[in-house]
Amino acid sequence: MEDRSELLILYATQTGNALDAAERLGREAERRGCPVKIHSLDDYDPNLLPMEGAVIFVVSTTGQGDTPDSMKVFWRYLLQKNLSKHWLNGVPYAVFGLGDSGYLKYNFVAKKLDKRLMDLGGRTILERGLGDDQHPSGYEGALDPWMLSLWQVLSLIKPEFFPNGADVIVPNETLIDQPKVQITYHNTDIVESQFSTASDLKYNEIQIGGARSMHPGTSHPDRNRPGCFLKMVKNLPLTKSSSGKDVRHFEFEFFSHVIEYDIGDVLEILPSQDPAAVDAFLRCCKLNPDSFITVSPREMNNCGAHASMIPIKLKTFVELTMDVSSASPRRYFFEVMSFFATAEHERERLQYFVSPEGREDLYQYNQKERRTVLEVLEDFPSVQMPFEWLVQLVPPLKTRAFSISSSQSAHPNQVHLTVNVVSWTTPYQRKRKGLCSTWLASLDPTDVVYIPGWIHKGSLPPPSPSLPLVLIGPGTGCAPFRGFVEERALQSRKSSTAPIIFFFGCRNEDGDFLYRDFWLSHSQNHGVLSETNGGGFYVAFSRDQPQKVYVQHKMREQSQRIWNLLAEGAAIYIAGSSTKMPADVSSTLEEIVIKESGVSKDVALRWFRALEKSGKYHIEAWS
Questions:
Q1: Looking at domain 7-173, what is its CATH homologous superfamily?
Q2: pLDDT band at 2 (very low <50, low <70, confident <90, very high)
């Protein structure tokens, strides 16, 4: 039987923070002589859980209290009714959650996981830790003290984990010797001949798939769902410059082959980085951009490590997998940098940043300012990290997900997006721009640019034509509902369809009334949004009068119409910013049900829970 006398750390991450925290826990355990193994929850067999010596769970909460994608299968397993209350048989465990107290369901995933493990007979050894993005030091503000308590408790109940005691710490220098990856360099002439017969499109496909499968931190989305290349055919501004926003309507044609999608689906795009930033990174790190490399885990057997890998140019590998120009590095990046700093004052500053005393200053310098990897390396010019460490520690280049704003029935060879071109100013007045949205906005539809994309299911399932709908989508939250309305308009030509009420909101009628003509055309002449057909289109302009008006105000004005549709079995769909909007809209819906039906608040809440269970209450929110 496999030895279980080691600490197991299981994590579920959506953006990488939970992985970062799990790896930090693992390093701190190793420094105390504790044997440890770390697994993502989607890479772990839950049947083995009752046999573990001790388990630490590190889980993030996404959206409106949702589990990360990598946790969904594991969570369904834990919810099986045939698991008894003694299933875990006293297995010691602890839970650390990562969340944001600005959200309604703060750290909801960690809380429900902790309760379920307890219900299944697990033995909680420490009160769950709750990391908060709103803390001045981020989630580490809670992680650091929680970790110290964890080692003390673990050393008491599992003394065999700590042969020298939990307070005897191995110096970091002994753990910095070996990065997780190894780089192999290849003969340039031999490699280039491998690609000589490939078409441009095929060459791009090989490069993207090869690079992202080699990188230890990137997901390779086309393993699980088909990918495609897109060609932009329209890039239209939807807002006026005076509005202070830049929202674009993008239309893409399937360039390689058509991928089928439903309304409510999501398109993931792999963005291109600024070539100047990539070149500056290569110069800063003294890397040869024309080298051909393969990257593999260090523990992999050297004989067969590279047999199935196609070498790739070092510069291309960086462009496709390493986010050097938009993402902020993690704390461990600074810790490793300190070992490679040759200037004394730089080494001292880096060591201060990763000390408990410097934690808040690091957060202000790095995360709050959204320093990029390139900017950090330029601030510490004496640091020359080996490329292996850079591959391991530079944040992976992630795909960006956008709600699809078209119906494929209306646009058979196309997919449309509604994108806010992101820009903001940091606390120190530095201008920042979103990587993917800025890149898309810069593309000229007359140029041929291959845009890698993957389609997957979103949080808004496509409704049947006979299902009445109450849609609430202020701002770019309207994106998926444009597809919903397009689809139902086509369906209504063939047979009768159920009505749709749609509530939209923006700042000014003149500046950012997205898709104005589209909505108005469908709300007139017996369109699917027309009141004559039982539906309606209601828009709130928040800044066009002294008193701010939001979608909630328009919903209250149409209280009876909403209740009439809900009484007929309507489904509710909410999409938009994840700040206050979803919570405010949900509260308004509760008010409407209480007012129009005459029931108590408790009854109304139970009614909404039943609506959610029956698949008629959906929220898609993003930050």
A1: Flavodoxin domain (3.40.50.360)
A2: very low
Distance of CA 504 to CAs 120, 405, 542, 591, Å? 45, 15, 11, 19
Q: What is the pLDDT of residues 44-91, one digit of tens each?
A: 999 999 999 999 999 998 876 788 888 989 999 999 989 999 999 999
The pLDDT tens digits of the residues spanning 244-270 come to 899 999 999 998 788 899 999 999 999
Helices marked H in 249-292:
275-284
Query: How much of the chain, in percent, has pLDDT values that exceed 90?
Result: 69
**Rounded-to-10 torsion of CA 261, 495, 464, 469:** 110
Task: Say how far apart CA 193 and CA 618 lie, in whole Å.
Answer: 52
pLDDT reading at 224 higher than 90? no
Considering only residues 180 and 475, tell me which one the structure prediction assigns the higher pLDDT. Answer: 475
Burial class (CB in 10 A: 0-12, 13-18, 19+), 621: buried
Please give the CATH architecture assigned to the domain spanning 469-622. Answer: 3-Layer(aba) Sandwich (3.40)
Task: Note the pLDDT of residue 1.
Answer: 35
Count of residues for the chain?
A: 623
Instruction: Give percent helix, percent strand, percent coil of the chain, each to the nearest 5.
Output: 40, 20, 40
Tokens of 548: 């701010």
Distance CA 466, CA 488 (A): 10
Return d(Cα 516, Cα 539) in angstroms, integer: 10
d(CA 537, CA 60): 37
Residue ranges of the chain that CATH labels 1.20.990.10: 181-393
At the fourth CATH level, the homologous superfamily of domain 181-393 is NADPH-cytochrome p450 Reductase; Chain A, domain 3 (1.20.990.10)
The residues of the chain that CATH labels 3.40.50.360 are 7-173
Give Cα separations from 355 to 152, 260, 331, 363, 506 (angstroms): 20, 51, 10, 12, 45
Q: What is the pTM of this model?
A: 0.86
Taking only the tens place, the pLDDT of each residue in 110-147 is 999 999 999 999 999 999 999 998 887 778 889 989 99
**CB proximity list for 258: less than 8 A, separation 6 or greater:** 228, 412, 413
